[in-house]
């Protein structure tokens, strides 16, 4: 009963986001280190976008630079909190300290003011923040190397330095506003538009994509839904897209399924429904998914009574791929039952009983259905 046990385990899981708590009046550790930083480290000249998706409740950062391993320096994000990009003569303490401020309920604009207000090297910094409500704020110090600037809009901020010109951030903003789909796709579209408009005037070397969503990490035990980096490559955005496509096929569907469970457990049915709908679209568009993944989506839809005909098509695909799996056959039987195909459901449930080494769950459902019962048996009539 793999997926039933998995759902039960995930429903009781508590995902902990641990933050270091800082006071509003903190003194940032840059007075002494700042000068050494400016002398000893290369400039993180780059263009980035920080953004929020209110439907799927995702926060993310995408970045490209002529800088080695930019993903290790610029992006920071925490689910249900916000996201930060710190660049130019980057002060990396802005990342964790910015998230700590956002976790305390500070808005993005105030967080920017607090972080830069205590930094005696702030004129060399560039910073973009989106808070838990999607409100953006940005800062570009007057000593950042030209072209440098930023642009904010609904649920996003774009910023860059040592760019070919202001058209780079304009193109990124337009691409984000006009694109559709999940946040990762829109962030990658913005990066591509920025590069096509000229990008970093020194060239390109690395890129990164970070997306956080409640329960969206591996096995649902973290919030890091996407964390991909191209550290050194002649066409980093193209390579980042290739890796992202692999990520979607390998982890994307299960990531959203885990988030469905987490959002339900935390009382956010709208986000849970949005994640499940995303799963359905992905399942229908990806031809080579594993049967257990198709089955998980179909079963989740069945439990919620959503898109039953489309769920039936997924379950049929799953059975074709794994005809001897009792769990998968049971899902198909259950969907037929929900759609009123009772004879077909009973026939398939008999087969599930025959296939299973532990048939009690399926036998209870079968007996109930044969006796004219109306319960679909999601919990084996317990």
Structure description:
With 382 residues, this protein is α+β, with helices and mostly antiparallel strands. It has 2 domains: 16-254, Glutamine Phosphoribosylpyrophosphate, subunit 1, domain 1, CATH 3.60.20; 289-370, Serine Threonine Protein Phosphatase 5, Tetratricopeptide repeat, CATH 1.25.40.10. It is built from 13 helices and 10 strands. It has helices at residues 2-12, 31-40, 94-103, 108-117, 167-178, 183-196, 236-265, 269-285, 291-304, 308-321, 326-338, 342-355, 360-370; strands at 46-53, 58-65, 75-78, 82-88, 125-131, 136-140, 149-153, 156-160, 206-212, 224-230. Helix 9 (291-304) packs parallel to helix 11 (326-338), helix 10 (308-321) runs antiparallel to helix 11 and helix 11 (326-338) runs antiparallel to helix 12 (342-355). Residues 1-39 have low confidence and may be disordered.
Structure keywords:
382 residues, alpha+beta, Glutamine Phosphoribosylpyrophosphate, subunit 1, domain 1, 2 domains, disordered N terminus
Give the class from helix and strand content and strand pairing.
Answer: alpha+beta
Largest sheet: number of strands, sense, barrel closure? 6 strands, antiparallel
Beta-strand fraction estimate: 15-25%
> Roughly how many Å is the radius of gyration?
24 Å
Write the SSE topology.
Blueprint (H helix, E strand, L loop, with lengths): L1 H11 L18 H10 L5 E8 L4 E8 L9 E4 L3 E7 L5 H10 L4 H10 L7 E7 L4 E5 L8 E5 L2 E5 L6 H12 L4 H14 L9 E7 L11 E7 L5 H30 L3 H17 L5 H14 L3 H14 L4 H13 L3 H14 L4 H11 L12
Antiparallel strand pairs: 1-2, 1-8, 2-9, 3-4, 4-5, 5-6, 7-8, 9-10
Helix pairs in contact: 1-7, 3-4, 5-6, 7-8, 8-9, 9-10, 9-11, 10-11, 11-12, 12-13
């Amino acid at each position: 009963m793999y997926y039933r046990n998995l759902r039960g385990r995930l429903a009781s899981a508590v995902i902990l986001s641990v933050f270091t708590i800082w006071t509003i009046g903190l003194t940032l550790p840059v007075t002494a280190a700042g000068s050494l930083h400016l002398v000893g480290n290369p400039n993180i000249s780059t263009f980035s976008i920080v953004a929020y998706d209110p439907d799927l409740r995702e926060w993310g950062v995408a970045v490209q630079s002529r800088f080695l391993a930019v993903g290790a320096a610029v992006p920071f994000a925490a689910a249900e909190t916000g996201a930060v990009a710190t660049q130019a003569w980057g002060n990396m303490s802005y990342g964790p300290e910015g998230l700590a401020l956002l976790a305390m309920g500070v808005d993005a604009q105030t967080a920017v003011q607090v972080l830069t207000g205590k930094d005696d090297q702030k004129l060399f910094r560039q910073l973009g923040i989106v808070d838990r409500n999607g409100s953006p704020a940005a800062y570009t110090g007057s000593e950042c190397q030209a072209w440098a600037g930023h642009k904010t809009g609904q649920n996003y901020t774009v910023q860059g330095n040592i760019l070919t010109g202001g058209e780079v951030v304009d193109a990124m903003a337009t691409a984000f506003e006009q694109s559709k789909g999940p946040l990762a796709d829109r962030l990658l579209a913005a990066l591509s538009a920025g590069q096509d408009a000229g990008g970093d005037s020194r060239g390109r070397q690395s890129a990164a994509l970070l997306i956080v969503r409640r329960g969206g990490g591996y096995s649902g035990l973290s919030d890091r839904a996407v964390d991909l980096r191209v550290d050194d490559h002649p066409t980093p955005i193209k390579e980042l897209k290739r890796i992202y496509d692999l990520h979607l096929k390998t982890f994307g569907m299960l990531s959203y399924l885990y988030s469905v469970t987490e959002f339900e457990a935390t009382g956010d049915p709208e986000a849970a429904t949005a994640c499940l709908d995303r799963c359905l679209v992905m399942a229908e568009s990806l031809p080579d998914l594993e049967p257990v993944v198709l089955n998980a989506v179909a079963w989740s839809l069945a439990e919620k009574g959503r898109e039953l005909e489309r769920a039936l098509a997924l379950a049929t695909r799953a059975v074709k791929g794994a005809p001897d799996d009792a769990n998968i056959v049971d899902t198909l039987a259950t969907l037929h039952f929900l759609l009123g195909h009772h004879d077909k459901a009973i026939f398939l449930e008999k087969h599930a009983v025959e296939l299973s080494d532990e048939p009690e769950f399926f036998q209870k459902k079968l007996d109930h259905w044969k006796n004219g019962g109306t319960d679909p048996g999601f919990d084996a009539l317990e």
